[in-house]
Amino acid sequence: MKRLTIEQLLGINKFAVDDDQAHIIVKKEICALCLNKPCTFACPANLYKLKDGQISFDYAGCLECGTCRAICPQATAALSWQYPRGGFGVNFRYG
Ligand code: SF4
Ligand code: SF4
């Protein structure tokens, strides 16, 4: 059986992106004080990235797993996290 890469597996999913309302908002001023930035290696969709020393985040492609909220040491202050509105978000497909 052919083994797919993470990128290929993620590419199978469909996303209905809510352009009017982000379901996760990251407060970058709090992130600037975060030492290890665990979200950058824990998000399975790789949506948190470090660019020029600053956190960059795009909610499109979110798997709604909650890992970032669980692992963030400042989750209450740094993240506004909720599930997408009805009709939006990830639609998991298994090939
Ligand atoms: S772990 Fe939390 S506070 Fe740290 S960079 Fe990521 S979102 Fe920001
Ligand atoms: S909920 Fe999961 S997939 Fe979405 S941004 Fe957080 S860690 Fe990444």
From TrEMBL:
PROSITE patterns: 4FE4S_FER_1, 4FE4S_FER_2. Residues 53-82 form the 4Fe-4S ferredoxin-type domain. InterPro entries: 4Fe4S_Fe-S-bd, 4Fe4S_Fe_S_CS, Fd_FixX. Keywords: Electron transport, Iron, Iron-sulfur, Metal-binding, Transport. Gene3D superfamilies: 3.30.70.20. SUPFAM superfamilies: 4Fe-4S ferredoxins. One of its GO terms (molecular function) is iron-sulfur cluster binding. It comes from the Bacteria. The keyword Membrane does not apply. It holds the Pfam family Fer4_10. This is Ferredoxin-like protein.
